[in-house]
Specification:
Blueprint (H helix, E strand, L loop, with lengths): L1 H9 L8 H11 L16 E2 L6 E10 L10 E11 L4 E5 L20 H25 L3 E7 L4 H10 L3 E7 L2 E4 L4 E3 L9 E4 L3 H15 L2 H12 L10 E2 L19 H7 L1 H9 L3 H7 L12 H11 L8 H11 L4 H9 L3 H9 L7 H7 L8 E3 L8 E3 H10 L16 E3 L5 H7 L7 E7 L5 E3 L4 E2 L3 E3 L16 H21 L12 H8 L26 H14 L1
Parallel strand pairs: 4-8, 4-10, 11-17
Antiparallel strand pairs: 1-2, 2-3, 2-14, 5-6, 5-9, 6-7, 12-13, 14-15, 14-16
Helix pairs in contact: 1-10, 1-11, 2-7, 3-5, 3-6, 6-12, 9-14, 10-17, 11-12, 15-16
Length: about 575
């Protein structure tokens, strides 16, 4: 892992000097992503009262086998979307001297300019919130953008943006909810402005922003800024941090010519961006998927992560520009997202999630974006195994896919080892023959009535094929340097095998070799035992051997004889 990532960090790919490279890669990521709240049916399951989030629950249905004999050919996964907040999201303001950005887009350019970047983030917040209002209006909801007084974009664009003189909200009954992307400075006094309904025009606002960025050479800030705004919905990162915005900028002149640049294509994808951003853990899981290697088993996950961290750390800390260089080479579709969290001060939290803890997994997002996040998506081959032996990865996959109510294990890495087919539970043994794998997906609206209505067409899934998992039964390290790696490996292994134990009525780690003592030692390992089973906490006293007392036996025998 170290060699691959270090080489990627030092070798920029062809074309990475243009904005087109980054935007097109990001658009490719969004290709199969649905649009935000597109044509919802009557009675769709939107819920949320006063002082709570406005949420939507939908369902992704996966076809997992084409075997007509299978009675569980589909797997359904509910997913949750935040459509509105009880209050706007906030960011922390940093002093200009502390706010220099450690990222450049393109990676060969100078670092992004922090003050202007804040203005652009605030402008994207307004643009996306305008689009949020427009989508809800199309759905027949009471949503509106408000400006303070009679201010208009045409004359006061930057004043509206930098002075936070706008509000985007929706009213449902007695509840008021705000746009999930409506951004305010932390600690700023709540305005009691003269709020007046304004025309919501996301396209006009975008044109103003684009003309300003092109005239000032801020295209890198433009495309990175939208990524920072999309992560405002994350529940896995602290509040974003930005420099103070630059005030007293003149309102840019809006171009009268119709254009279709790569930047316009980015704006036209905004509904897909909103869909991803509002889905629970969606963007977080996509971001962390950059480091997922399906050939590395759970007990080596920490060691692999350690190699990645070393590749980006010429000193004691990770170099963010090296990280971004490597992403641009190996995962170009994720480079804008990583640039966004670097520039918002959230990158350390996500690196800790991905390389020290266990990253969030969103299978539904993995299918929409065609990203590999977990071993559950991988087609593992076992050509060198006999038919009586099966990789545990295939066993665990089958267990998940053939059980309707089973949640996914919280470990992206596959289990190590193999097991005899005769060791499988009867249920899993039956379904192994059906060759369960993710084949296609369809989204369904969930209605208040309990019915489900198709919300998308059927999409075929392209599987990632892996020939071998690095097989080893060594689940521990001895060097001090790898103690943190042990923690991640131990967490992944424990969660994965205990998930199997809880849902499969126990676990017996037979590998077909017949070494019972080896199996017992493995099952007693700290990473394998059930952490909630206290039978391992109390030491069992060894039975003590006692000498026979001959005199006592003779006295007992004599007493019995006298009584007869």
């Amino acid at each position: 892992m170290f060699d691959h990532w270090r080489a990627a960090a030092s070798t920029p790919p062809p074309g990475s000097g243009s904005y087109q490279y980054y935007v097109q890669a990001f658009l490719d990521l969004l290709k199969d992503v649905p649009s935000f709240l597109h044509s919802p049916p009557d009675g769709v399951g939107i819920t949320g009262g006063p002082r709570s989030y406005l949420t939507l629950t939908s369902c992704l249905r996966i076809q997992t086998t084409e075997d007509p004999e299978c009675d569980q050919p589909r797997k359904s996964i509910d997913f949750y979307q935040c459509l509105g907040r009880p209050s706007p999201v906030t960011y922390k303001a940093k002093a200009e001297a502390e706010a220099s950005l450690q990222a450049a887009i393109p990676i060969s350019a100078n670092p992004l300019r922090s003050g202007y970047f804040t203005n652009i983030v605030l402008a994207w917040s307004y643009i996306i919130s305008c689009r949020w209002v427009e989508v809800f209006q199309l759905a027949g909801e009471d949503s509106q953008i408000f400006h303070d007084g009679d201010t208009q974009l045409e004359s006061s664009f930057w004043d509206i943006i930098t002075q936070e003189s706008w509000v985007a909200q929706i009213k449902r009954g007695k509840s008021v909810h705000y746009s999930p992307w409506m951004l305010r400075s932390e600690g700023a006094k709540k305005k009691r402005g003269d709020w007046k309904a304004a025309s919501s025009s996301s396209s006009v606002a975008f044109d103003f922003l684009l003309d300003f960025c092109e005239s000032e050479g801020l295209q890198g800030e433009l495309i990175t800024g939208i990524a920072s705004v999309l992560f405002l919905t994350s529940r896995n990162a602290p509040s974003a941090q930005f420099a103070p915005p630059i005030h007293n900028l003149a309102t840019p002149t809006r171009s009268s010519t119709k254009r279709n640049t790569i930047f316009h294509q980015l704006f036209q994808s905004i509904d897909k961006c909103m869909f991803l951003s509002c889905t629970q853990d969606a963007l977080d899981s996509v971001l962390c998927s950059a480091f997922f290697d399906p050939s590395v088993p759970c007990n080596f996950m920490g060691a692999a992560s350690l190699g990645v961290k070393k590749a980006f750390s010429p000193g004691d800390e990770i170099d963010h520009q090296l990280l971004l260089n490597a992403m641009t080479s190996r995962k170009p579709q994720l480079s804008l997202l990583w640039a966004g969290v670097i520039c918002s001060g959230q990158v350390t939290s996500f690196l800790r999630l991905a390389l020290c803890n266990l990253p969030p997994i969103s299978l539904v997002t993995a299918f929409w974006t065609n990203t590999a996040q977990t071993f559950l998506q991988i087609a593992y081959h076992s050509r060198d195994l006999s038919k009586s032996i099966i990789p545990r990865a295939n066993e665990f996959q089958t267990s998940y896919l053939c059980r309707p109510s089973l949640s996914a294990p919280w470990s992206p890495a596959p289990p190590f080892g193999v097991t005899p087919v005769e060791n499988l539970s009867l249920e899993i043994r039956q379904h192994v023959e059906h060759m369960h794998q993710p084949l296609s997906w369809t989204i369904y609206w969930k209605l208040h009535s309990g019915d489900q209505v198709p919300a998308s067409s059927q999409h075929r899934i392209t599987l990632v094929h892996v020939d071998n998992i690095h097989q080893s039964y060594s689940i521990g390290h001895v060097t001090d340097e790898q103690s943190m790696a042990d923690e991640q490996s131990g967490s992944a292994t424990s969660r994965l095998f205990n998930w199997h134990r809880w849902y499969d009525d126990g676990i017996w780690l037979d590998d077909g070799e017949g070494d019972i003592e080896s199996i017992r030692r493995l099952q007693m390992h700290a990473w394998i035992i059930d952490p909630f089973d206290d039978q391992y906490d109390e030491p069992v006293d060894e039975p003590k051997h006692r000498e026979l007392c001959v005199d006592s036996i003779l006295r007992w025998k004599a007493g019995v004889g006298e009584s007869m």
